[in-house]
Amino acid sequence: MADYKALIAQLTAVAATPGKSVAAVIKETGKEAFGCFPLHTPEELVYAAGYIPVGMWGGRTEIKLADKYLQGFCCTIIKANIEMGLNGTYKDLKGVIIPCICDTLKCVSEDWIYACPQIPVIPIAYPMQRKIDGAIEYMVEEFRHVQAKLEEISGRKITDEQIEAAFAIYEDYRQAMREFVEVAADYPLTIDAKTRHLIIKAAYFMDKAKYTAIVKDIIAELKQLPKEEAKIKVVVSGLVSEPVEVLDILTENGIAIVADDLSQASRKFRTPARAEGTALEKMAGIIADQKGDTFLYEPEKYKGSMLIDQYKAKKADGIIYFQMKFCDPEEFDFPIVKKEMEEAGIPLLYLEVDQQIDSFEQLRTRIQSFAEIL
Ligand code: SF4
Fold this sequence. Notes:
Elements: H1 4-16, H2 18-29, E1 32-36, H3 43-48, E2 51-55, H4 76-86, E3 93-99, H5 103-115, E4 121-124, H6 133-154, H7 160-184, H8 193-202, H9 208-223, E5 232-238, H10 244-252, E6 255-262, H11 266-269, H12 279-289, H13 303-313, E7 318-324, H14 328-344, E8 348-353, H15 361-373
Parallel strand pairs: 1-2, 1-3, 3-4, 5-6, 5-7, 7-8
Helix pairs in contact: 1-8, 1-9, 4-5, 6-12, 7-9, 13-14
The structure holds iron/sulfur cluster.
């Protein structure tokens, strides 16, 4: 069995250098890359089409060109994506899929056509009433539309067998990740906040089958080690837990992440697929069955109670809410979550972040104070 430290280093390096990692996977597999904007992008179809799906979750870059297309109050993830589309960083992508999940993304699927006409875009819409039978039918139709567009761009037919095979690889990935986040909670010193984040993020820049095999090896090796205890344990919520410098500050203050409710992490893999149906119906079922996800309409608002359950199950000391600046859906949820945490007597830290921050002192002070209170 491989050395777990080397495997962890391999994955963290992949996530830390996405451009290099995608170039390496293209060279290794001979496949081309296809961009997947957040959130809930049907990556299985991209994989079935013979492409490497690449996660487009923004990144550190100077915003110079994107402002021509986007308002000042647009979130930095999307600004960075448009900027990198314009400055040539994404020149090797054969296309991008943009789910129209929030007001910004609805506009961006149109902006992209003008900003980056050389890279074809496939928009996809999800229904608000996602749990009714008609919604499943609608989502399957949307997936078929994405499939047809991928066929048009690639010039290759995608068979149902290829979709089933891709779905099985993604199910294996989701299952492995559900186990990984559980096991990682028992090793908060080895898998500190940044390491946890980078391991999970590496999946966006690798072939999923290869990535899953490495994660399974890491899980098996970790389980052989004696369990570890963190000084302070937290559950985190939000879109992403970036920039990574913030995670270093958590570790400096003895804070470990023992569970998450993040779009870039557990929301991506926490919902099991239904037993019955075709791969496309199961993909729609995952969207329909997802609970507590800010970006999927839910009148019952389960998010707060789910956070409380995670907090209790992991015997955590508090909850950190990573609020991406200008991310309206998360902002709308916060007052509800705050009230529920106050009623439950759970310490809550609200951190407003964006990917282009270059001074961390204010965040450092707030995290230090939170650690001292806990
Ligand atoms: S508003 Fe939120 S969900 Fe929408 S693009 Fe911005 S960060 Fe993403």
